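Lecture 7 notes: from sequence to structure.
We start with the chain below.
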Amino acid sequence: MKNLLLISLIIICISQNSISQNSILQSSMSKNTELNWNFQDPRTNQIYPLGVKGSVQEGLISNKLMPDPFDQLNENLFGWVEDYKWTCTSELQLTAVDLNHKFIKLEFPSIDTYADVYVNDSLVLTTNNAFKSFSVDIKNVAKVGNNSIKVIFTPPVIFHRAEYDTMPYHLPAINDVSPIAIASMVRKPQYQFGWDWALRMVTMGFNKPAVIHVYNVNRLVQTNVQTKNISDNSAELDFSMHFDQNLVANSTYYWSSQLNGKRELTSDGSKILTFPIEVNNPKLWYPKGHGDPNLYEDKWTLSDKNGNILAQQDVVYGIRTADLVQNEDQWGTSFEIWVNKKPIFCKGGDYIPQDIFLARISTEERLRMVEMMDQANFNMVRVWGGGMYADDDFLAACDKKGIMVWHDMMFACSVYPGDSAYLKNVEEEFDYQIPRISSHASLVLFNGNNEVDVAWKNWGFQLRYGIHGKDAKAVEENYDKLFKVLAPNTIAKYSNIPYVHTSPLSNWTEKEMFDHGTQHYWGVWHGKDDIEEFSRKIGRFNAEYGFQSFPEFSTLRTFSYPEQWNLDSAVMKHHQKSYVGNGMIEKHAKRLYGKMQNFETFVYYSQLTQAKAVSIAVAGHRVDAPRCMGTLFWQLNDCWPAPSWSSIDYYNNWKALQYEMRKDFKNVTMVQRINKLEEEEYFFVSDLNDTVQSKIKMTAYNFKGKIKETKEIDVKMIGLGSLSIIKAEKIDDHKDNLVVNFEWQDENGILCSRQFVHEPDNYHEADQKDFTVEIIENDSLNKRIAIKINTDKFLNDFWLS
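Predicted structure tokens for the same chain:
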């Protein structure tokens, strides 16, 4: 019940954050209507309901024409959908009063992707990008009474087939699993074409509801707040209002604010009004753990010279500066995020879309994900570039929680075009997304792409795809046009948020590159490195690294049967999308924990191995501060139920990794650094800029409870730093299994503890007779259960499912 109450409170707060939303009060009569859709099965011409949003695939599933694609091998049954064009229809009732309005706008906030839109059989709009909003005035074709709206979707494979067949070379798109790999030519979420953690499901439809806007005055569609500068007692901000139509040049408008008084504004004839504001004694927004994430709640009103209200909007914003520091230093080249001129050690993970079907990701689910990030002590999340731009409710929740956002542009692991038509399409996408995203206080970094640069330079694309000479030069020129000219120039139009053209800036196969910029270290999973290398191969900012595990059995049951619970079953092989997959899990799990007797133990060990691997990395990263200033593991969540690198599975179950991160990511905590599996040392770490003083008590005892060693140490750390508590040789004196327990007071004076287990002879599984499990409370109304575990033995990594 506690969690439900927290979520309700978040929703109430987020509803006040109307940045980039359409909850705008107009001075004259207006109405907004969501369209309800049907779709036609091209095989039978039968018509079926779709709803206000969703893809044709979802329509097929909801109408029982197709099975759940997550179940068994059902993904394979959906390929035929890409062989047909699909028609969706809707009806709109308009009155004579409606038609007397100046504008009747049909808006698609996210239409997926290639579509021709007809109103009363007249072609009014052609769309080509799921990442931007499309709108068209339909007043000239609208009529009183019933109006028919028809949208014909063309699958990307059909749309690009002729172009693909005649290209002098094919653009590398290695995660597109179709023989006609055109993913990089399409402006839609790349992960839907297939990934090493996702099924292929190339959706067509409406990611968000289509809306009819009937109005007379120029409609306000977006607001933007940018912090330009902060001095000792004041902050300089830029406020802007973005309208649907161009404003009349040299016209005078009157802006008023509950917090910032009144202003007379003059239009330059564009769609945007921008004006400076000075705030005295500002309450600054700070990341989690470094201060309060202060936010201002305001209401803006815009009027004409006669006092008529043109628009009103609630606006929530934070005041902060965000800087990226990349300096040459004694180690190489730094990569540091500074907020309000203070360096921040960044801790968190990489976020992907929460479903393969974007339309069914609800606000409540996005807010729940941010809540779970907060519970695990994240202070940063990276929105990964192969998915979808983050929604405002997600970003607003990050604003409120103090969780910084690193936001990729939506490009990943491919080579992208650079012709004028493609660049124009992307420019319009950027013009839509960048002002919206950058207005959030949590946004601290824009990144041009995920692994596009490192892929071109290191993954053998030239040989595999036959791209040489002038063609290779064209690829590189196109990269520069897109990521070194268009992206930074567009960002600069709207924001002063820092930008880098790619991540990683360094390649993990070259030792010296760990000293420069961002790093995606995959030497354990995709290479031959031992798991301990996570503690030794450390980049200046670690934006990706990870290890796979299986989800828990409640999740496995949603797509498989117990008789399929073995690594050789067709279902398990199908859901494992990584080319190295289960063998890599088995290899490292066996070394850490010993031989697995059955599939159930394999699943259990997979989660323990994942948690161990990532924890080894995080400990190494934190001990290495301030040389290392960021640790973002791959990946936070899933888009379907399957084994993957996630710490939270598709149904929001926490894996062992998420629980471990909650301990590893505390501002002040103990971590265990492992140089070799038999060599452990413990560090008291802090990522705060303030001084931390504490008394640490260490107790080492064996599994029978006999104390082997105790120690108390007074510590004082000034700024980012760490203190070694116990060296490996202390443990080597003991031949039996040990539990090493630490107690200390954190920065708030709260008593904390953490224990680590030293078990040199692999893993000893508890016997069923060693414990009993008893349900002592079962509150079905509030969905709460209390369980008592009785044991007289030491139990570690106890998993209750």
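Points to note: The first helix runs from residue 2 to 14. Confidence is low (pLDDT under 50) at residues 1-29.
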